[in-house]
Amino acid sequence: MKGARPALRYAKAILNLAKEAGKETEVNDNMKLIVETIAGSSDLDSMLKSPVIKAADKRKVLTALFGDKVNNVIKGLFNLLEENKRMLMLEPIAKQYSVIYDYYKSMQVAKVTTAVPLTKELEAKVLAKVEEITGNKANIENIVNPEILGGFILRVGDVQYDASISNQFNELRREFDNSHYIPKI
Question: What highest taxon heads this organism's lineage (predicted)?
Answer without folding.
Answer: Bacteria
